[in-house]
Amino acid sequence: METTSRAEPHDATGDDPGRGEVRGVPGPRPVIEGYLAADFPWYGLDDAFTGPRWLTQVGTGADGSVEHGATGHGQEPTLRAELGHEDQRFTMVVTVAERPVRRSPDGTGLLEATSPASAAWLAGSGLLACTWPAQMERALRQDWLEQQTNIAWELADDLGGSGWSALSLPVDGVPTPFHYRESEYGWVLAGAAPHGVHIGAYGRGMSAYGLGFAVIKDIESYSVRG
């Protein structure tokens, strides 16, 4: 993920989806306007998936431009202690706009180019956000979160390392290589895609091996709850 320089830390909702705020659990009222305002197409699971579809919040830059977002499939992940990880079945598909190295809006520095590593970080931190160990004492949670966040960041920054394996999945019907890894909390994958975007995904209870991704023709359909 390194290009010219790295500010420390970046906000995951800002211009550069780098290390920063951990997000992943859907907000109370997703804003469809953010998805409609994007200058890139959104990806989701293809038509082979027939379950519920829904939206989270988009990530925007300092100038208000939409930089990334995630579409949900299956059950919405929850942190409720009474619902264990093994009872949740979902896949989140993260779309990240392809951006070159560019000057920050305030003109004080450069922002990194986005890449599959950006998608891997957003997917990894998204999975982390919905797997906090609810049974852990509050005093220990921050240490756990910091440790796991560092691990997610290091893994995303080394997609060619031993922490990842290769997985080919269809994107718009074309076999496409992805970087893939599993953990006790679920799985994460990331790769390049056509149409000027990078794709990441994470999930639990749904196997990644049978998934396919496709451009969403009608993003507004994701905002209609069944």
Descriptive notes:
The protein has 226 residues and is α+β, with helices and mostly antiparallel strands. Helices cover 17% and strands 29% of the residues. The chain has three helices and twelve strands; from the N terminus they run H-E-E-E-E-E-E-E-H-H-E-E-E-E-E. The strands form three sheets. Strands 2, 3, 4, 5, 8, 9, 10 and 11 form an eight-stranded antiparallel β-sheet that branches. A two-stranded antiparallel sheet has the order 1-12. A two-stranded antiparallel sheet has the order 6-7. A hairpin with a 6-residue loop joins strand 6 and strand 7. Helix 2 (116-129) packs antiparallel against helix 3. The termini are far apart. The model is unreliable at 1-16 and 18-29 (pLDDT under 50).
Task: Present the secondary structure layout.
Layout: H1 32-36, E1 43-45, E2 53-55, E3 59-60, E4 66-74, E5 90-97, E6 102-103, E7 110-111, H2 116-129, H3 138-156, E8 165-171, E9 174-183, E10 186-193, E11 197-204, E12 213-215
Antiparallel strand pairs: 1-12, 2-4, 3-4, 4-5, 5-11, 6-7, 8-9, 9-10, 10-11
Helix pairs in contact: 2-3
